Amino acid sequence: MTRLAIAIDKHRCIGCNTCALACKMQNNVPDGMLWNRVLTEDCELFDGAVGQYPNLSRSYLPIACQHCENAACLRACPTGATYRDDKGRVEIDYDKCIGCRMCMAACPYNARAFNWNEPSRSTGFSYGDARVPERGKGIMEKCTLCKERTDEGDEPMCVHCCPADARIFGDLDDPDSEISKLRREQTAHVLLEDMGTRPQVFYVN
Q1: Which of 12, 48, 54, 110 is at a distance of 20 to 30 A from 125, taking alpha carbons?
Q2: Which residues is 57 bridged to in the sheet?
Q3: Domain CATH number, residue 190
């Protein structure tokens, strides 16, 4: 068995958005859309702060598809377009997606994006990994854990490019992997644990 997962060390995250942009470039994500977002916690402003001067604090929450073991999106999909593969990744079969957006409504993490129009790119052409499938109008898309890379044994691009080493990728079913050791040895939490979705993305505070 394989359960690919990502751990995010919030102490190390500097909110630089490199992960979001690396994901966008790798996966040919259209203008106006991100699969991977970096939120400023407890603040409505991007890069805002909490408190009153001079006692201010700021922390970041990178968020994308959580690749849940008990995925609400999978149960909501009427066509089987959303599925969980043999590596524990939640994926979308674009040929089966009918654009009903039921998965988008079901996801408690707001981690999906929908192509309301034909995707456009300011470059005027596609970019990134040529192995990544094209997505057209009326198709749902989201983080795939860089399936094309991880199928070959490489890290997702967000992990590979993080300048602060705030992201750790690996197999939770391998007890000797760095991510398994991290989960055993440090206090970690998942988002919206009470929802029972059992995410495979977890956070170290």
Answers
A1: 110
A2: 50
A3: 3.30.70.20
**CA 40/CA 43 separation, integer angstroms:** 6
- What is the count of structural domains for the chain? 1
141 phi/psi in degrees, rounded to 5: -145, 165
- Give the CA distances from residue 181 to residues 38, 104, 198, in Å, rounded to whole numbers and listed in that order: 25, 33, 18
Are residues 23 and 30 in contact, defined by beta-carbon separation less than 8 angstroms?
no
Residues 6+ apart with CB under 8 A from 22: 157, 158, 160, 161
Identify residue 27 by its one-letter amino acid code: N
Written as one letter, the residue type at 164 is A
Beta bridge partners of 91: 83
Where in the sequence is the domain holding 171, given as residue range(s)?
A: 4-204
Provide the residue type at 100 as one letter.
C
Q: Which residue is listed with tokens 């859309």?
A: 33
pLDDT string in tens for the chain (205-residue length): 799 999 999 999 999 999 999 999 999 999 999 999 999 998 887 788 888 888 988 899 999 999 999 999 999 999 999 999 999 999 999 999 999 999 999 999 999 999 999 999 999 999 999 999 999 999 999 999 999 999 999 999 999 999 999 999 999 999 999 999 998 888 889 999 999 999 999 999 8
Report the DSSP beta bridge partners of residue 204.
Answer: 9, 188
